[in-house]
Amino acid sequence: MWAWFHKLGSPRWFYRISDLCLPWLTVAGLLFLVVGVVWGLLFAPPDYKQGNSFRIFYLHVPTAVIALVGYYVMAIAGAVSLIWKMKLADIVMKEAAVIGALLTFLALFTGAVWGKPTWGTWWVWDARVTSMLILLFLYIGVIALNNAFTHPEQSGKACAVLSLVGTVNIPIIYKSVDWWYSLHQPATIKFTERSTIHPDMFWPFVVITVGFYVLYAVALMFNTQTAILEREYRTQWVRDKVQQ
To answer: How far apart are CA 53 and CA 140, in angstroms?
Structure first.
């Protein structure tokens, strides 16, 4: 019953399966993203308070959401690497850190662009903004630890520990607007209560978010493939792959 789990931990098996999935996922992700962006930017109605400036929501919120989810991906991969000593999990953890850092930076940047017309300033030490900045530092910390060690196993352990410790920041980010007085608006999309966003604005967001999720998976698969080739270059199957 654990055969699938051990297969998933095989770099060669992962490379073969992801090679088959990548073209289809790339097309699907781009299709969702293009449809959602056109729908949200051209056809969704303007917000009654913020006007058309709210449309940065369609870039800011998906990147922020996936930056949070991506941290859990990194932490889970780190836990698997620590417990089962899987090389693939170690690779996924380190590649997820790079993608997560880029997404978090993009979320902070788009938030600043949105904040200027909304709050009148590019930056405030708001609870949500500050905790997102801490998330960026955690991602950068994992990247720095990975580059600080010459031995992959040592860097893997250090990165996994930091990844797991940093998960405490994720619920803080999510609940920060509820726990502290905050300029940042409360969540408009809720799972346990009725969402406060109009359906005409909500559905483009759903389509864009699906596109971002798929493209996140594409980026993680592609980066992991590249790292596998670099790490397993001495193996026969990689040599055969390079020669093709």
So the answer is: 30
Find residue 51's DSSP bridge partners. Answer: 47
Model-level pTM?
0.93
Q: What is the pLDDT along the chain (244 residues), one digit of tens a residue?
A: 566 667 777 888 899 899 999 999 999 999 999 999 999 999 999 988 888 888 999 999 999 999 999 999 999 999 999 998 898 999 999 999 999 999 999 999 999 999 888 888 888 888 999 999 999 999 999 999 999 988 888 999 999 999 999 999 999 998 888 788 777 777 777 656 677 788 899 999 999 999 999 999 999 999 999 999 888 887 877 777 766 6
Residues 17-43 as b or e (16 or more Cβ within 10 Å = b): ebeeeeeebbebbeebbeebbebbeee
Rounded Cα–Cα distance for residues 106 and 99 (Å)? 11
Q: Where are the domains of the chain?
A: 59-232
**CA atoms 66, 98, 221, 79: torsion sign:** negative
